[in-house]
Design goal:
By secondary structure, the protein is of the alpha/beta class. The strands form 3 sheets. A 7-stranded mixed β-sheet has the order 5-2-1-6-7-11-10, sandwiched between helices. Helix 1 links the parallel strand 1 and strand 2. It is globular and about 50 Å long.
Length: about 210
């Protein structure tokens, strides 16, 4: 039986939050991935350089098996009673898993799905997540399988989460096969994947880059 995965797209999202999980999940023949949104057509990602296409509206796909909500600065404009929040809220009761990557967890929280739960997000959004009722934790992937909710930290952690999703939806062999398929074997040149691992000089440079792209 085919598993229907829906990944919502919205303006100023972070591309890898969606494309990382997509690359893993679409390798499995029994999984279909659809990019959904408030309306069909192209959206531009956070710096405007990349366009992604919404192929189906929220109304077209009201009850997917799995939801993967990406993050990005664009989430900040979507936390009130927006079509995305309403869709996540109404889709969740029938999903097998409702998940997020990076600040996509803010959308889950705004939909009322993370009240009183531990969750993760990008390290720069912990305060925002806490204000929405969740308890932020510095973990790569946080699972609440009884509630069918999984959250992943910033950007690249969505790949980790997607591999875990495959193991839950299919089996561990399928997850490992998908990991080999995309050759996900991280060996970064620097151990600098979190603020706790770098010095003030790196964080100052990061602040400059964030300001330039804001």
């Amino acid at each position: 039986m085919t598993v229907q995965v829906a990944i919502p797209l919205f303006p100023r999202m972070t591309a890898l939050d969606a494309i990382g999980p997509y690359e893993v999940l679409q390798r499995i023949p029994s999984i279909d991935v659809t990019f959904v949104g408030a309306e069909r057509g192209q959206i531009r990602t956070e710096n405007g350089m990349l366009g992604l296409t919404v192929d189906a509206t929220f109304d077209d796909l009201p009850a997917p098996d799995v939801v993967v909500v990406p993050g990005g600065i664009g989430t900040r404009a979507l936390l009130d009673d927006t079509p995305l929040v309403r869709w996540v809220r109404t889709a969740h009761p029938t999903t097998r898993f409702t998940t997020s990557v990076c600040t996509g967890s803010l959308v889950l929280a705004a939909a009322g799905l993370l009240d009183g739960l531990t969750a993760t997000t990008h390290w720069g959004a912990f305060d925002a997540l806490e204000k929405l009722g969740a308890t932020p934790v510095s973990e790569r992937v946080v699972e609440h399988l009884d509630e069918r909710i999984i959250t992943a930290a910033g950007v690249s952690s969505g790949i980790d989460m997607a591999i875990r999703l495959v193991s839950l939806l299919v089996d561990d062999l399928a997850a490992q096969a998908a990991q080999v398929f995309v050759e996900y074997d991280p060996q970064p040149p620097f151990d600098a994947g979190h603020p706790s691992k770098v010095g003030a000089d790196v964080m100052e440079r990061l602040a400059e880059y964030r300001l330039a792209r804001s």
